[in-house]
Amino acid sequence: MDVLNRLQSHPLFAGLAPEALAEAARAGTAVTFGPGDSCLRGSDAGEVFGVLISGKLEVSQAGEDGGREVLGEISPGECFGEMSLLTGNPSGADVTAVMESEAIVFPEEAIGPILAGDIGAVRFLTRLMQSRLSPRGSRAAAPRPAQLHYSLGDSSAMRVLSLSCRRDALRFSYYDTSSEQARADGRVNGLGGEAASISCHGPKGASQGAV
User: Which of 24, 79, 112, 197 has an alpha carbon 20 to 30 Å from 44's alpha carbon atom?
Assistant: First the structure.
């Protein structure tokens, strides 16, 4: 499978700079799941993020009667693991292959910083999570790639803090899904050193100073 070609045609990755897209392609691995194989465990916290290429996945969780409660299905072009990727918390739902399925799978620590640096990717994932948490429909059903430009409607706004951490620097953005723009963003340089500094741009303008 040509991972780079698959990613550049997907809405989540389409807006990435060429260097970031190439880095994402290097981080991704093409995986084939057999029927019944586990793709993601609900107890895992931010370990795996994937994009389904072919086949079908089922999302489920333990029911009150001890059985499995099916929450929805994931079809080709849709993502899984976005909730843990964004929050760092377990999703609480298991993702299992219904039939032989192909996916591009990424370690969270590799793909997280790449996507966090692109406002379009963060917006895509935030709205995807909002859609799946909405009580108006299935918590697990994702919008198809061809139907990305939808309104949040009467869904309550969510606030998301996006962090991209490097060895000696940290980039952050604070989003409100009721708006198309970040409410605040900035960067901390020189982490771990005596000359660490922070620069930030928010509603009141730009500011900078020592940490």
Answer: 24
Tokens matching residue 180? 């198309």
- The tokens for 186 are 């900035």
Which domains, ranges and CATH numbers included, belong to the chain?
1-144 (2.60.120.10), 157-211 (no CATH)
Radius of gyration of the chain (CA): 18
Model-level pTM greater than 0.90?
Answer: no
Are 46 and 85 in contact by the 8 Å Cβ rule? The answer is yes
**Cβ contacts of 109 within 8 Å, gap of 6 or more:** none
Number of other residues whose CB lies within 10 A of the CB of residue 147: 8
Q: Give 55's DSSP letter.
A: S
Cα–Cα distances (Å) from 37 to 16, 28, 95, 101, in that order, read: 31, 19, 9, 10
Q: For residue 167, what pLDDT band results from cuts at 50, 70 and 90?
A: low
Classified as helix, coil or strand, 120 is helix
Angstrom distance (rounded) from CA 187 to CA 185: 7
| Mean model confidence pLDDT for the chain | 80
